[in-house]
Every structure is written in structure tokens, then in C-alpha cells.
Amino acid sequence: xxxxxxxxxxxxxxxxxxxxxxxxxxxxxxxxxxxxxxxxxxxxxxxxxxxxxxxxxxxxxxxxxxxxxxxxxxxxxxxxxxxxxxxxxxxxxxxxxxxxxxxxxxxxxxxxx
Amino acid sequence: xxxxxxxxxxxxxxxxxxxxxxxxxxxxxxxxxxxxxxxxxxxxxxxxxxxxxxxxxxxxxxxxxxxxxxxxxxxxxxxxxxxxxxxxxxxxxxxxxxxxxxxxxxxxxxxxxx
Lengths: 113, 114
Description:
The structure holds two protein chains of two kinds. Helix content of chain A is 0%, strand content 52%.
């Protein structure tokens, strides 16, 4: 069975500081992993995806994530936070041949000016 | 390019009234389709998903139903809405085959039950 755990439902960073949002997955086989961003009253937008081609994945808006199999983690980072990064972030996993996606409970990112 | 349309954007309904939310996808064939509900400040709850016309899988027992009358059309319905049906409803699609294809979401419907 697949599952995703996002540690920290709320994260606050200062503008210009490093953003680190944590995601750990549970999967019996190598999974496909995704990060999404959601702005208020909008749908989810794909930030990046891990599909086994490379362990360090670069996404939109300067975000990247590193797949670490030994730690079953897929943490999202950005070197320098912008005010526009304030949003809800979701980590998700999809099984190798599955149709279902399993989402974490989300992390709300606040950027302090 | 593929697009997903979801409407209406907002809806206010009285308790006991019926519901119909529609979602359509353009630019792709045979997509997997999904309905999610998001309560205020909460994560995503998968309600239904479909791998083909007339094929609906329900994930949680509830007051809602879904139908897929056409390949790229997915409808969420209720005969009698409850207060607990309030929330933000999201439609999504994904490609078939290997799981390396992400989901793509519509803009959502904000449903308020009075």
C-alpha cells in the first residue's frame, strides 16, 4: 500500500531564506512521486515529479526535490523564498501501475517579509 | 495541449437540494478521471475515480454519486445535499499506463450548503 507523510502542517520562513518542506513515503515498490502547489481557491498545480530518471528533480518556480530511497524521502526545497511562494504544498505518490494517487495532508507555507 | 474545465466555480445550495457538478477534459483520450473533496484547511479526500465510460470506483460511502457518460466528461451528483457536503470539490485527470504520469487539476468548485 502507498502512503505519504508530510511533517509539519505549517512552515514559516523569512523572505530570502531556504524553504524545506518534508515528505516521506511508504511503498513496497519504487513509487512515482509528485509535489503540487495550491493557491487559495484554486486547483493544484504540478511543481515537479520524480519518475526514476534522476534523483534530483528540478521543477517550476525554482523548486527542486531529491529522492532518497534509503530515507524514503522526497523533500522539497527552494534556496530563497519569495512572497509569492506562500501557498499550500502537497506531496503525492502513485503506484507503478496504479490509477490512484495518495496525497499527504499538506503543508501551509508562510513567507515573512 | 490538454485542458480541464470544471464548473461552476462557486455554488450555494440549500440542504436537501440536488447537486450536479460537471468536469470535462480536452486534448486527450481515455483519461483517468477523479473527484476529490477538500474540507477547509484539510487535505484531499478521493471521492470517485473512473478508468472508462460507465466505470466508477467509489472510495468512501457518502451522499454523492458520480457518472461518466462520455470519455472526457465526469459528473458529480447528489439527490439531497447535507450540510456536511460543503467543501471545495476538485476534478482531475491523468493519463493511462505507467504511473509516471501526474494528475492535472481543474480550478475547483466551492460548494456552500445553507
